[in-house]
Amino acid sequence: MSTDMMTLPGLGQDEAPRQGSRAARLLQPIAKDVAVELAKQFGVCVKPVWLRRTNTATGETELVSVPCGATSAAKCEPCAEANRRLRMQQIREGWHLTDEPVTTPDAPTDEQRELVEYRAVLEFARTSVVLAAEWDQVRELDAEIDRVDEQITAAGVRGSVLPGGRKDGSDPDESAPARKRSTKRRQDAPDLPRLPVANRTIPHPHIGTDGREHRDSMFLTLTLGSYGPIHSAYRRRGRVQVCECGQLHSPHDPRIGTPVDPDSYDYRAAALDCIHFAKVLDRFWQNLRRAVGWNVQYAGSVEMQKRLAPHGHFAVRGALARKLANQVAAATYHQVWWPAHDKIVYDPDGAVPVWDPDTKTYRDPETSAALPTWDEALDAIDEDPDAEPAHVVRLGALNAKGVRGGSESAEKTIRYITKYITKDITDAVAPGSRAQEDHLARLAAELQVLPCSPTCANWLLYGVQPKNAKATARPGRCKGKVHQRRTLGFTGRRVLVSRQWSNKTLSDHRADRKAWVKALLALSATGETAGEHDRVPGDPPPFEYELASRDDPDVPPPHVHFLRKIAERQAWRAQLDAAKQQVQQQLSATQTVAA
Between 229 and which of 244, 415, 486, 546 could a Cys-Cys bridge form, CB atoms 3.0 to 4.6 Å apart? Predict the structure, then answer.
């Protein structure tokens, strides 16, 4: 046997490395990494913000850490998970309500009436001195009006008595009045029933054959239309779905979500629909409320499909007729009244319009003719009676499912709605094959040259100056989030909750959870700091805060902070478990006595 093929004893590739060797040490976990993983398991923020808190009464200063509050798991996984659980609580509390969450404002107090009456006197006096051109008195009255407005807000009055928040009640942008478009429905869109929207968020209960009231709710999934045949997986349950290419694909096929024919796939329409998807969602809820005749409430999130098109999952309070919901989805559209941008006039890698500093305008690189401004391009659309919108966004298929409150299906649906909100919208559809990578690259290339807003520099590629044009505009190099691969065109809110869903914000839900823990531990329901909630309004706060630097000598190293917080969370968890056990024993004893 050749010596080159011989293997010495103890040096086999499958054998464990020798104890004490470098290979054995490299296999050992790192202490700092273990501390970070434990911190994540116990819900400790891994990127805390350090603050110096000074007691204004005693002058004592202490260092406190505040969670960063990130909503993305890539930044801080524990904070993102805590935010996801708050969203789950928010959806759970508002989904299957039986009583209206709308609250009627309290009647104004005498103090509030007097302040608003005094504010009316000041407004009348200001109008008089403005007509008399007595500008010195105008400034004095403005200062007094500001002071009274602060007093009105401190007295517990919401909003402003003047429209737009201006002292004179004028439009804050009088030089640019809003453009009005015709509200006439398109001829190619089906008509919708239109009912007066009642001031209620809960539909009337359905009386079943058993004579009982049923208040089921719904789970809706809204998607966009098709841009061409794509490879799809077969269904594991129900009917077998054959792909549009005529084959059966498993869910792990690397072609899932990619076009059958990429050359005929409409990437431009797909990119534009991603950009304006948030607008067509708003239009859908508006149409749905008008069609059913009551103020439909919803809560959900937006995700990406495998084909890289956004779609939304929503919990809807109340049961809707599936036929009517599909009719509303088919009739919903959003018209983009922008200048035409279907053909590129200037190549982004070639000669592009140049900036003229004298006239502060962009000119053609060959003819030196000034490009039409944004307002001129919109005026041309308004003056053309046969003008068509630059793009029309429509919804695709709608999937609706009934959900009963308090069931396991409801909890499973809530987890399904919130499962991806801690990640970027493209994390769940990261390409796993060459075909998927090419599909993403072609969509990203289309988004790179499309305009994302009226101020986008890409308008220069289509022969139009962007709104508020500047010399720094670089067509094809816009830094807007729409053009980035981590968004793929969608930059709207990932979590969408209607205003009257539960009448609570995330801060309210966070306070509810804190109050529940305090009640369980038999602690005081007023705050942790004594006297903080007993101070008189208008008095200076008992504490002052300032941001501390991570380089300060008294700021502990990150892993030392993690170890302390882990021990603190362990003590909290043990105390909470003991309190739960004690409450259960008390309930068991009460039930035994009652029996």
Answer: 244
| pLDDT per residue as tens digits for the range 433-485 | 999 999 999 999 999 999 999 999 999 999 999 999 999 999 998 999 999 99
| H or E element, residue 495 | strand 495-497
Alpha helix stretches (DSSP H) within 132-178: 135-154
- CA-nearest of 120, 74, 153, 96 to 414 is 96
3-state SS of the chain: helix, strand, coil percent to 5?
Answer: 35, 15, 50
End-to-end CA gap in the chain: 87
- At 537 the three-state DSSP class reads coil
Contacts of 154 (CB under 8 A, 6+ apart): 537, 538
The whole-model pTM stands at 0.83
**Residues with Cβ within 8 Å of residue 161, at least 6 apart in sequence:** 116, 119, 152
Full strand arrangement of the beta sheet holding 61-66: 61-66, 49-55, 543-547
Nearest to 416 by CA among 86, 80, 90, 88: 88
Task: Let me know if 210 is exposed, middle or buried by CB neighbors in 10 A (0-12, 13-18, 19+).
Answer: exposed
Decide: 284 and 291 in contact? Cβ < 8 Å: no
DSSP state at residue 333 = E
3-class DSSP string for 193-223: CCCCCECCCCCCCEECCCCCEECCEEEEEEE
- Nearest 5°: the CA angle 514, 519, 522 is 125
Q: Find out whether 78 and 45 touch, Cβ atoms under 8 Å.
A: yes
Contact (Cβ atoms closer than 8 angstroms) between residue 334 and residue 392: yes
Residue bearing tokens 């509200």: 183
Tokens of 487: 């968004």
Residue 27 contacts residue 17 (beta carbons within 8 Å): yes
Rounded Cα–Cα distance for residues 332 and 342 (Å) = 23
- In angstroms, the CA 392 to CA 181 distance is 14
Closest CA to 317 of 91, 570, 512: 91
Q: Kindly list the distances between the CA atom of residue 328 and the CA atoms of 193, 285, 287, 315, 569, in Å, as whole numbers in the listed order.
A: 9, 9, 7, 17, 50
Query: pLDDT digits over 318-333, tens only?
Result: 888 899 999 999 999 9
Q: What is the per-residue pLDDT for 440?
A: 95
Q: Residue 223 — φ and ψ, nearest 5°?
A: -125, 175
**Cα(427)–Cα(448) distance, rounded to whole angstroms?**
20
Q: Where are the alpha helices (DSSP H) in 27-109?
A: 31-41, 77-95
Place of tokens 């076009």: 259
User: Which of 23, 72, 59, 53 lies closest to 424 in space, CA to CA?
Assistant: 72
Angle at 341 between CA 336 and CA 347, to 5 degrees: 155
Question: What does the alpha-carbon distance between residue 424 and residue 70 come to, in Å, rounded to a whole number?
Answer: 12
% of the chain exceeding 70 in pLDDT = 88
Distance (Å, rounded) from C-alpha 467 to C-alpha 460?
A: 11
Cα–Cα distance measured from residue 368 to residue 355, given in angstroms and rounded to the nearest whole number:
10
> Cβ contacts of residue 60 below 8 Å, gap of 6+?
54
Output DSSP code: residue 233. Answer: B
What are 52-61's pLDDT values in tens digits?
Answer: 888 888 888 8
Query: What per-residue confidence (pLDDT) applies to 171?
Result: 45
CA dist., res. 34 & res. 40, Å (int): 10
